[in-house]
Amino acid sequence: MEQPKNITLKELKKTSYQPKTIQQELADNLRARISKGETSFDGLIGYDNTVIPDLERAILSGHNINLLGLRGQAKTRLARKMTGLLDEWIPVISGSEINDDPLKPISSFAKELIAEKGDETPITWMHREERFFEKLATPDVTVADLIGDVDPIKAATLKLTYADEKVLHFGMIPRAHRCIFVLNELPDLQARIQVALFSILQEKEIQVRGFKLRLPLEIQFVFTANPEDYTNRGNIVTPLKDRIGSQILTHYPHNVEIAKRITEQEAQISPEKATNIHIPELAKELLEQIGFEARKSEYVDAKSGVSARMSITAYENLFSSAERRLLITQDENTCIRMTDFLGVIPAINGKIELVYEGEQEGANEVSFHLISMSIKSLFPKYFPKIEKLEKPNEPGPYDEILGWFFKDNELFLEDDLSEKNYKKALDDVHGLSKIAKKHLADLDKKDQYFLMEFLLWGLESHQKLNKLRRLEGIQFKDSLGSFINRL
User: Which domain holds residue 181?
Assistant: First the structure.
C-alpha cells in the first residue's frame, strides 16, 4: 500500500480512524491472522509449537515481553517480526518528536499546535517499519540516552527556565511512543538504569532531573536476555522482572531436519554457486550434526550455547571451499567433498566457547574432534555398524577396504584435486566403490563419491584407519599394517 497523502486534522476526523494503543493494534491484527489461518510470524522455523504460541498469548494479553535464551536463538528476529502485526500506516501530528496521535495527543508541542491551528493541524503518516526501535544494553548506557535530559542549549535559545517542560530533550523511549521498543541484553544494563524503567512500565511516567512528567506512553516493550552469566554481566533486578508480563524461553532446533531448513534459509549462497556446486543431503546433515555434537561436548561451554550462526557460516564456508577449488582446477561443476569440511573449521572456531579442557586441546583440535564425532554419529545410518568387539574369523563388511590399506597402500586426497583425479583416487581403493553403491539405493547418484569419502572418514573415526592432515590435503593409511609389512 502506498503512503496516504498528508491531510489535516479535519480530514482525519471524517475518516473511520479511531485511536488505539499499540497493544490493541497488535492484538487485533493477530486475531485477524489467526482467524484466517495465516502465519503470524513468517520465516521462524522450529518455533511453531513452542515459542510462537507463547508469544501469541503474550500479545493477546497485551504484555510486555522478555525473550530469554542463549545466543543465536533468533530473539531479536522474533521482536522484529512483530512489526508485521502493526497497521501499515498510522497518522501522526507533523513535527512531533514523539509521534503524537492526532486524536490523542500527549506532548505539550502537539497540544499547543492543535490549540493554535485547530482542524487545520497538519497530519503526516508513519509506516510500520519506522515503528521499530532497538537499543543494545551496554554498561555505558545512561538515563539520558533512554529517557531524556534537560537541554541547556534549547533553554538558552528559547529563553526558557529549567522549570519549563519545553527544555526537555526526549530519549529513545519517549521517541518510541506508539512503537515497538527492543532492549537487547537487558542484564548488561546497570541496575540504576533498570530502576529508571519502573515508572515507565507501570505508571506511564517519566522522571528527568526532577521533572515528573505524566506521559501516557504507548510502547510495546520487548526485552532480550541470556539466562547464563558467561560474561561479566549483572542480573535483571527483581522489581523490573515483576513488571514484565510474559517471559518466553527460546531454544535451539530440536532436530537436524529443522536445523537444515534454518541454515538453508539464512545462508547467503549466490545462484552461481548453487548451480555449479552440488551438495549432498548427507553433507547438509553432517554440517548440522556438528552443532548438535558441540552442544553436548565436554570441551565446549554449554552455558554459552552454540549459536545457529555457526551452522550458517560453516555452510557458506563449505560452498566457498568448493568454489575456490573450481577456480583452481577450472572444472565446470563439482560436488561438496569431505575434505571441504576442513574449510568450515574457522567458522567453528569463532562460534564456540571452550572450557578449560578444550583450551588445553586447542580450538583446531576440538573442531576436528567435533567433525569426527558427527561422522561417528551418522555413520550407522548409512553403512553397517562397526562393532567394538568383533568376532574372530568372521568376515566383516569392510574387510576388502581395510585389506587394501593393510598392504601398505595409502590414499592422499589433495584439497584442490580436480574432479577427474579425485574420482580416480577413490576408485583405486579396492572395495570402496562396491560398498558405496550397495548403500546408495536411496541416495542421489551424484553423491556416490562423497559417500565413498565419508566411508573412509567413518572408518577413521572408528579407529580402523589412520588419517593425517598434511599441508596439501588428507592422507589415509593403515599404520598397523604398514608397520607389520616393514618387519
Answer: 7-249
